[in-house]
Amino acid sequence: MKRCDYCGKEISYNDMYCCQDCQINTVKFYSIKEKFSIVFSVINCVCLFAVPLGLIIFSIMDYLGFSIIAISTAILGFTVLLLPLPTDGMISKLKVKKAVKITRIIGLAILILGIALVIADIIIYLI
Ligand SMILES: [Zn+2]
Question: I need a surface site. Which of 43, 52, 71, 106 has the fewest CB within 10 A?
Fold first, then answer.
């Protein structure tokens, strides 16, 4: 059974999408993905690099190290939430709509964690 590339609804073999909306949304998604994938990758790399770096600094200067971890986690979560770009593997398995939704939920979870760390960071600083 063939499924709509966007929402995953069952469709006939001659179609790519179940409706025009799904086609428009898919085109929109891929143009955003193409336009922002480099920016997205760079921010991701910097943030993913900053977390272990923060851990290393943490052992020398605990406040600064913790701040780096907290802020980069928050930025990473915010980027994923704002620009949910799932991997190609996720897209082919889950279809665009579901993959974007799950990526956004992951981004939100990382952002909440990041904000909690920033708040903890500020509280530690004030104490
Ligand atoms: Zn559809």
Answer: 52
Centroid of ligand 1 to alpha carbon of 7 (angstroms): 4
Tell me how far apart the alpha carbons of residues 1 and 19 are, in angstroms, rounded to a whole number.
17
Each domain of the chain, given as residue ranges in start order, spans: 36-126
Q: Is 90 exposed, middle or buried (0-12, 13-18, 19+ CB in 10 A)?
A: middle
Centroid of ligand 1 to alpha carbon of 96 (angstroms): 10
pTM of the model: 0.87
> Distance from the CA of 85 to the center of ligand 1, in angstroms?
19
Contact present, 54 and 47 (Cβ < 8 Å): no
| CA 80 to ligand 1 center in whole angstroms | 24
Decide if 55 contacts 61 (C-beta within 8 A).
no
**Residue-wise pLDDT tens digits, 40-77:** 999 999 998 999 999 999 999 988 999 999 999 999 99
CA 37 / ligand 1 centre spacing (Å): 24
